[in-house]
Amino acid sequence: MAGELESLEKLLEKHIPPDELREVWRLLYGKEIRPLDLPSCASQAASKAGFDLQGYGFEAAQEQTRRPRIVRVGLIQNKIQLPTTDPVTEQISALHRRIAEIVEVAAMCGVNIVCFQEAWSMPFAFCTREKLPWTEFAESAEDGMTTKFCQELAKKHNMVIVSPILERDSVHGDTIWNTAVIISNTGAVMGKSRKNHIPRVGDFNESTYYMEGNTGHRVFQTAFGRIAVNICYGRHHPLNWFMYSMNGAEIIFNPSATIGELSESLWPIEARNAAIANHCFTCSINRVGTEHFENEFTSGDGKKAHRDFGHFYGSSYVSAPDGSRSPGLSRVRDGLLVAEMDLNLCRQTSDKWNFKMTGRYEMYADELTKATQPDFKPNIVRE
Amino acid sequence: MAGELESLEKLLEKHIPPDELREVWRLLYGKEIRPLDLPSCASQAASKAGFDLQGYGFEAAQEQTRRPRIVRVGLIQNKIQLPTTDPVTEQISALHRRIAEIVEVAAMCGVNIVCFQEAWSMPFAFCTREKLPWTEFAESAEDGMTTKFCQELAKKHNMVIVSPILERDSVHGDTIWNTAVIISNTGAVMGKSRKNHIPRVGDFNESTYYMEGNTGHRVFQTAFGRIAVNICYGRHHPLNWFMYSMNGAEIIFNPSATIGELSESLWPIEARNAAIANHCFTCSINRVGTEHFENEFTSGDGKKAHRDFGHFYGSSYVSAPDGSRSPGLSRVRDGLLVAEMDLNLCRQTSDKWNFKMTGRYEMYADELTKATQPDFKPNIVRE
């Protein structure tokens, strides 16, 4: 991507002297986090396979009655591998191969839970508004080829896998959903979590393809901690994060596909705010690169029809409940971010800040119920 | 404040070349905003009176059926003026004089609505847990000396004033509240808005002094736009911002008092997220400086007893619904931030992103009601 910056972090590090840089990071990214000492075989493999590898550790205080609950999480961002005009199954297989390669490195780094980007087994073709061949990328969440592929990976590496795909639900009249499949480290499908909020914004007119999810705010009790998945546009909805947290999520993944012009200044804010507001970890994953399509389409933004969506800016990152965050992965390259977290930090932060205790949810349940009524009267004071 | 940085913005501007700085601001602060051309008499007065003066303009697209709705908002941050051991009424009067001086400059800059910091007519003495003399700073919201002072200012300058004070409510058994008084540009008291969420965090053990507010989520229809006030700790609660927005607020003020060690990395995130999530402007105002008290007190953080709270880091700023934000005021000096905003940007952003339309509030009202029940069962999936 000529002209695209590799990352904000690299730019700041290039220009700011180390003593002042420390204060910049404190103000921008919160409490200092520890770079992980990843095995050299992993760094070499990442370098050879041409992807960005970074690792950071988030620590918690020692407790007397609970042992530290250390988990290593992996976030993967990647480009599509073949042109969007290639046969569907070849495109899928090429993505499987790329992900297998990156997950191999995640395993070297001791990752326990890995999450891929939104609709990872396909190009993000929803901008086209065309149905074929794109709906052919939809697969059964329970036994599609992508789920089977993930089950093998999960077993091989003893790793929980969060696999966001386009789901074909043949049990309910061939409905299509935007769904994350959660696969246990044993290889079993634990269940699925569907995208709750669907955008109708510019090129993201996804309601052409699927509707609002009906799986609510499930949390999955994995061997390594309680996780939930808030897919893409759901990150703009604070109540969506909140309900996953109320159901007990300690880590909420946000697999996404979003582009620079539209959302890049929102990207560092929303998931990090959710980590703070809900006393949990959030993992933000964005696609990377530019995807080209055969036929022109319009974005509804008054500009000319075009054949690409814009630049997916990557920049995947992890936020902690104490407001600290990791640097972002590359804005232009594939990447694997490894985050080691002590999940005890969630309850420790909750005990410090007490947002759930001071939340007054009875009042809000009542006000929200009233606000959804057609005859709702806003509370406006006039002189 | 020896050793305290003046501002993040100045540090970045010192080191980063202009062409790269543009991209840094885009990534950190969103769409470029316009520095306001403030009158030179205002700059001179600010310089003479020793406070930071900055001005920025947020623009909206032209519409055919609505005219631009331009409003100028002023955010004021200030230190206390006298030692906390001085007589109560002298401390109050000195603060009145300082604010009158800064509001005079706001008037030169054409400000229509001004908001002061939380409990602006007193030191933030709640850390002491002592009652006298601090409760003597509490005044009637309707006709206390501070409200009368603000009414005169409002009439003189044709300015709406948001005046957050410690309120003595003699009608209800001498109850004390943390309250913002909203004074119309005509000088009339429009009403009051009480702090909805009360912290019990370290030195912020404010529930010793006042309880959760009972004025709900009122919005005030002023001559210059619909405003609401989310006081301090309420900014950690996304539902609090949300209900002000559902009641129609276009600008939500967040008068605060918060210190570096505790919250500085959260400060740029929460109010900005609220502006994005609710399609409105948010105005974040923080106290500045360090306040010393006569008797030692403990923070409940395992450290030694101390006589000051820590450093209030100022850094007041404005966030727009499109995710852009202004630079912050000084971390160490008094300041006035003038923001010109076209309120049409709120509905334009809502029409673009549709968060209220896609919010699924019926579902959340139902889930939230269930979550508040003592026998609530979290939705947890096990293998």
UniProtKB/TrEMBL annotation, chains A, B:
| Main location per the UniProt record | cytoplasm
Q: What class of enzyme is it?
A: hydrolase
Q: Name one GO molecular function term.
A: beta-ureidopropionase activity
Family indicated by similarity: Belongs to the carbon-nitrogen hydrolase superfamily. BUP family.
- Gene name in the database record: upb1.S
Compartmental location: Cytoplasm
Q: Mind telling me which GO cellular component terms the entry cites?
A: cytoplasm
At the top level of its lineage, which domain of life is listed? Answer: Eukaryota
PROSITE patterns, sorted: CN_HYDROLASE (PS50263)
What region holds the CN hydrolase domain? 71-343
- Which EC numbers characterise this protein's activity in its record? 3.5.1.6
Tell me the route in metabolism or biology where this protein functions: Amino-acid biosynthesis; beta-alanine biosynthesis
Organism encoding this protein: Xenopus laevis
User: Which InterPro entries does the protein's record reference?
Assistant: Aliph_Amidase/BUP, C-N_Hydrolase, C-N_Hydrolase_sf
Tell me, which GO biological process terms does this entry list?
beta-alanine biosynthetic process via 3-ureidopropionate
Q: Which UniProt keywords apply?
A: Cytoplasm, Hydrolase, Phosphoprotein
This chain belongs to the protein called Beta-ureidopropionase
What functional role does this protein have? Catalyzes a late step in pyrimidine degradation. Converts N-carbamoyl-beta-alanine (3-ureidopropanoate) into beta-alanine, ammonia and carbon dioxide. Likewise, converts N-carbamoyl-beta-aminoisobutyrate (3-ureidoisobutyrate) into beta-aminoisobutyrate, ammonia and carbon dioxide.
Subunit relationships: Homodimer, homotetramer, homooctamer; can also form higher homooligomers.
